[in-house]
Write a structure and sequence with these properties.
This protein is of the alpha/beta class. The protein has helices spanning 4-8, 53-65, 81-90, 116-119, 135-149, 166-183, 197-205, 228-235, and strands at residues 39-40, 70-72, 99-104, 106-110, 127-131, 154-160, 186-193, 210-214, 238-242. Strands 1-2-3-6-7-8-9 form a 7-stranded parallel β-sheet. A two-stranded antiparallel sheet has the order 4-5. The chain is globular. Mean pLDDT is 87; it is low at 1-33.
């Protein structure tokens, strides 16, 4: 089905060589096609090992040249390092030619006595992280992300892993994102988690556009077929399936 987020954003990624007759049509009359693949930002934050700037930018360039037009990142990835690298590459590209998502809930604050190494030992970040799902924290997080990446808007803002902040997310985070969407600072919003149960409740109780399900809809696990996917279909919510290799298990021998 053509979904709301697809009509808003994914039209940007429609291949020029695909016949219009083969493409689903959005409610506004534009032809749209969901993005098939995206590039995740976790390794760009040096989560597992030191990734040099040279290798990071070569990877981004290779992805772009291969036709990738969806890029996902978060302030959490390397406590700012992932966003800075994405921004250094993407801010020179036509802003309407790619889809960019980042996340809220983990606010960064620079400090000479930071605890970055306790979270990301391979990242040279100068930041502390504060878990903040308040309306003020959401707005600050989006503004900081835009500044770190040097872009004017986010196509998607995900609430990042609110497992222990369910009530706060419903009462404060999602209403704040609704305001930012109305202001045009973000095009759409949703939630990203490693579980389908709470995502399903968010789909049922908010007006979000898209969810990111990480590592829970793969060749190893399809539990989301019984709760999240039917709810998204009923509510016309798009899905980003992340971590589809289950942290590498399905990508090695």
């Amino acid at each position: 089905p053509v979904q709301r987020f697809g009509a808003l954003v994914f039209a940007l990624a429609a291949p020029a060589d695909l016949p219009q007759a083969d493409m689903p049509q959005g409610g506004d009359g534009r032809y749209v096609r969901p993005v098939k693949f995206g590039l995740g930002g976790v390794p760009f934050g040096n989560e597992f090992e030191v990734v040099s700037d040279e290798d990071a930018y070569k990877t981004l360039e290779a992805a772009w040249n291969a036709g990738v037009r969806y890029y996902d990142v978060s302030p959490w990835y390397g406590l700012g390092l992932g966003e800075r690298r994405y921004g250094n590459f993407l801010h020179n590209k036509n802003r309407d030619s790619y889809v960019l998502s980042s996340k809220v809930g983990k606010l960064l604050k620079a400090s000479p006595h930071n605890n970055a190494k306790s979270n990301f030992p391979y990242s040279p970040s100068p930041n502390n992280v504060v878990f903040d799902y308040t309306a003020d924290g959401v707005r600050r997080s989006i503004e900081d992300s835009l500044q770190r990446m040097g872009v004017s808007r986010l196509d998607i803002a995900f609430v990042h892993d609110p497992d222990d902040f369910y009530v706060e997310a419903l009462d404060h985070t999602f209403p704040a994102l609704e305001e930012l969407r109305a202001e045009g600072m973000i095009t759409s919003y949703g939630a990203g988690m490693n579980q389908s149960a709470m995502l399903t409740r968010f789909v049922e109780r908010t007006d979000l556009d898209v969810v990111m399900l990480a590592g829970r809809y793969t060749l190893l696990e399809q539990g989301a077929l019984s709760d999240l996917l039917p709810a998204c279909l009923e509510r016309n919510v798009s899905i980003v399936a992340a971590g589809v290799f289950n942290s590498g298990i399905l990508a090695t021998d």
